[in-house]
């Protein structure tokens, strides 16, 4: 029996299967939309301790060491410009942001708390916190970030993938 003949004899069954599959997909989408409407979920925000936040990574630039000693130790500074928007009606507090690459988990550079600014303080309802998180890297971690150009940032209860751009060497003061 040729395929065209087989198709003609089974056409009704195939149409019923296709209708059932499409109907199931539409029903699932309708249930998802209804759930979102009932819970007030508007999409890409994340529920964290009863709060909805949005996180945006503006940039992630790695500056290799500018001194001979720093280059010998394969040191670099990774600056991540992040923005967190509190879309709720209550103040929201989070753990300090952490950078992860492989098994390494880094806290922000203790000497760079000021540029992080509002990202380290409670965020008022309906407000936006903006700041630059600075991480000091050395050795294998610097090599891994430079070669893969990827890391993750744990911020505001979320884990965000970041793409690392290699910038100019860092100066002694910057």
Description of the structure:
This protein has five helices and nine strands. The strands form two sheets. Strands 1, 2, 3, 6 and 9 form a five-stranded mixed beta sheet that branches. The protein has a four-stranded antiparallel beta sheet with strand order 5-4-7-8. The protein is elongated, with a radius of gyration of 25 Å. The longest helix is centred in the first third of the chain and has 29 residues, at 11-39. The chain has helices at residues 3-9, 11-39, 68-72, 113-116, 140-148, and strands spanning 46-48, 51-64, 76-86, 98-101, 104-107, 128-137, 150-155, 158-163, 165-166. The protein is an alpha+beta fold. 31% of the residues lie in helices and 34% in strands. It starts with a helix and ends in an 8-residue tail after the last strand. The model is unreliable at 34-51 (pLDDT under 50).
